[in-house]
## 1
Amino acid sequence: MSRTRTDNFPVLALRGRVLFPDINANLDVGRVESLSAIKAASERDSILFAVAQKNPERAEINPDELYLVGTVVRLKQVTRLPGNNIRISVQGLYRAVARAYELENGSYFATVDELVPVHTSPDLEEAYFRTSKSLMQDVAQTDSKISKDVIAALDICTEPDKFVNIAAHSLQLKFTEKQEILEMSRVVDRLERIDRVLNGELEISRLEKKINAMVRQSIEKNQKEYYLREQLKAIHTELGDDEEEREEFERKIKAKGMPAEVEEKALKELTRMSKMQPSSPESNVLRLYIEWILDTPWSEKTEDTEKLEDAVKILNDDHYGLEKIKERITEYLAVLKLTDGLNAPVLCLVGPPGVGKTSIATSVARALGRKFVRMSLGGVKDESEIRGHRKTYIGAMPGRIINGMKQAGTINPVFLLDEIDKLSSDMRGDPASALLEVLDPAQNSTFRDRYLEVPYDLSKVLFITTANDLGTIPRPLLDRMEIIELNGYTQEEKREIAKRYLIPKRRKANGIEEGKLTFDDEAIDEIITGYTMEAGVRSLERNIDAVCRKIAVKLAGSKKTKTNVTAASVEELLGARRYERDKQLEGDEVGAATGLAWTAVGGTTLTIEVSAMKGKGEILLTGKLGDVMKESARAAISYIRSNSQSYGLDVKQFENTDIHIHVPEGATPKDGPSAGITMATAILSAFTKKPVKKSVAMTGEITLRGKVLPIGGLKEKALAAYRIGVKDIIIPADNKKDLEEIPQNVREQLNFIPVTDVDAVFHSAIINL
Ligand code: ADP
């Protein structure tokens, strides 16, 4: 430690501060010793020795408690403050070490030696200096507590020792640390220390920054939410809608008696909704959803009719005839009652239109005292029609099942699924499999509608389905159902249904009092045969309705109080006949045979005409011929050809003869193989030139080897034959079991000829074969 100068200065004792050379500082001074030291200095050269007390808490100055190393400062300004305090401004000059402290006239004086900086290794010094400078820049960037002036001064500073002084003064260090730096003489040590401090400082300010950012983020988020909520509240108030809607919904949800899971879901969506702007699309979606949940029955239920007899009476009162059907439904209701509806099979009513399928289903509902809903499946292609769309879809709604349940308003209605055979499927999912879930007791207690999102219990619903044709019902669905077939009605049955049900019903609907309108039996018959062509009674009902309307107008405009409709007045009321009576062949004819066909509107007769002309052995088919009928025609020709000898024909004849087969347009036969034997008969008659008996009609499928296979719809076909007055009906022997389905009065008047091969057909139908 080299000494350059020694001097004696008044001592300025510092409490908790250290002053450095090369800096300016302001100090407030109040202690008597300090004041007198300042006074002494100002009286001399204004120089003071500023040195820190070891214990800053201590008020009185004790030389033993002063550090030895301090800074010689110049007093630059003295300002009086209120009270006895003064503020001084000093400039640090150089470091010095006190040799001794003496008390003189109330203030301490120190004899001090100057401490000069010691330069040891210039390279290291330079290296430290550079890093310190750049560190200082970094710190300056982060720490705003260092003033711009200081930073600028440090930046331009070229002397390492001066740099240390300024830096140590400006940094927030404990005074003891500052004292340590002040006491160091080797510049390298001092720089190294500053370096460490700056690094530490930097680390702290990085942490500070991070913490600040985190704090700010959380504050910002809270503030943002708070702000938005306040805004929303303001909007609600502005729009005049407040909590009312939410509370109303909540009350309804809780009162509805829905399963816990559903209630929870509804309340959750309600909470979501109440947080949204009421006019926003999202809020509307949720409102609609909650309304759906509230409109869907979850616990509402009707009690079934107590006594089975009462139920059966209703069923009987509603329908004429249908004895077998009523019997089966009665059984079904009995089982339903015994098992409390558990695992009851789904009824499927099959038959042509207008035979009373819908009517029976409504009647079942009425008999049980349940609500009734009906949904047509005709043309339903898309699975989502059954299951609905997710509510996120624009305009989404639940599927038809849930729609039906809403309509019913109870969890146990009779639910009629109409035209289950008309379901179609395409790439948008398979509605049949969705329906399977609906009808399957093992699955339908947790039916999932995509819109509702919560499971719905369909197990209490009594499902009844209808179909025109069993053939097109998907197999798995068919297996789930108990099939009840309804056939068409005979003329007599139709007349009775008209008299007992349709006429009174239509009369009432048109506001005509009982007794004011009567129908002759012949009038009803005339309507049935001349204006309808059906297995059921739908078109009959429509025509009766048309008559009633006309009569209602007449009655209103005249003094007449009563009208009786006769056969003769029907044409006047309904216009010209639409259908001519089915005619049997005019007489025995060559190349024409009467077949019987089953169509969607019931049984019908069809005449098949064949002509054999000179030609090249070609086959021409015209008229209403489906592909299956064409196949039958070819099979018939092959059989006759290969057995030509037994019918006295020459095989060569087939090679130079063209065969023309025609089925007249008037009939609308269903494409089916049952015209096989009729075609064969007409063809053989054409070749042999022997006539077919006009009193014979026939139905049956033919194989290449001449076997006659059974057909469907015998009852319908028999009724059609009966209508045109045919007496003999050739039927496949395997169909004999179906004869009992035919009403007795009809059966008694017909002569059924069961056959197993086509040869028997030919011999029964062709004269003189
Ligand atoms: P489907 O559903 O088979 O097409 P509907 O049930 O609609 O036939 O019947 C058509 C009309 O005929 C209805 O007004 C129905 O009440 C009536 N009806 C059908 N069969 C009978 C019957 N056996 N007794 C009384 N009315 C009947």
Note: The pocket of adenosine-5'-diphosphate is lined by residues 319-322, 353-359, 466, 497, 501, 536-538, 541 (CB under 6 Å).
## 2
Amino acid sequence: MRVLSGIQPTARFHWGNYFGAIRQYIELQTEDAAFYFIANLHALTTVRDPDLLRQNTLDAAIDLLALGLNPDHAVLFVQSEVPQVTELTWLLMTGTPMGLLERCHAYKDKKAKGLTADAGLFTYPVLMAADILAYDADVVPVGEDQGQHLEVCRDLATSFNHAFGETFVVPKAKILESTGKVPGTDGEKMSKSYSNTLEIFEEPKPQRKKVMRITTDSRPMEEPKEPETDHLYQLFALVASAAEREEMAALYRRGGFGYGEVKKALADAAEAYFAEARERRAELASQPERVREILDDGASQARAKAQDVLDRAQSACGIKL
Ligand code: ADP
Ligand code: TRP
């Protein structure tokens, strides 16, 4: 079984990205074959600063490795370093109904806001389909928000197979919803678009300041509170040990404590939780040639697989003479 997923290097990764996606990718890396890539071609639809895009792409690779992605188990590569995928995108684009893309939310939402979208954003789901089909992926773990794009991929694969004979493996989505939505510092869903994120590798001092500013309700300290519905507790629960979680939950139910104490405990627990990864990150950041080697090796394995699939697709539709 081949597992594959991609993540866009649009900003530094936050807790939502880690607990909602990256942690599960890392857990799945021992499947038969796991392919993970940094989707820089997708990011180009929003990041228009070349130095920033380059930096974000390398940072994303270093972050994933520091968080436990092991190149001995999983193939890690940069999307644009496999040009077979963009060739395959064209083959799929012919035969993609306009209506299918018009219904896709990234484009639809932008249009609904009265903004003009470019053709890159409009055809984004076709590039994503090529990303998946190029490697004969069986299972694609993604967040709930990407479910629609997986359906597009399945549609395009099925109709190509129908038109030209069995060519593509039709993949299954594995929607990651076990952790639910990670709340941001304002209690809404954590997202870079809402400026309410806690970044994984933010320096401890500024992160502690951010934690101390997390919004809380104004109920009196004496009142007992239900931990599970409080976003401060939800964040704490992600990074605390089981014993610390229980102790904190009991404190909530008993009442008579201040949110300041919880925030301090949260900042301490976060620092401890990511300490090892932070150390690994510093080590990797000081060895850019090692990171480059891992990405080169990943891209060459990915290109070999994608070339096989591209040959198959080109033969099927009559492009290969
Ligand atoms: P953002 O919302 O910050 O723009 P992305 O859309 O780039 O984040 O997120 C990439 C993946 O990270 C998503 O597909 C989703 O799986 C996961 N993710 C992002 N934010 C959260 C969150 N608050 N809770 C759970 N998962 C999240
Ligand atoms: N569109 C995905 C996101 O924004 C990233 C992505 C690109 C992806 N290509 C993919 C995810 C292929 C899974 C499979 O999160």
Note: The chain has two domains: 2-181+288-317, 202-273.
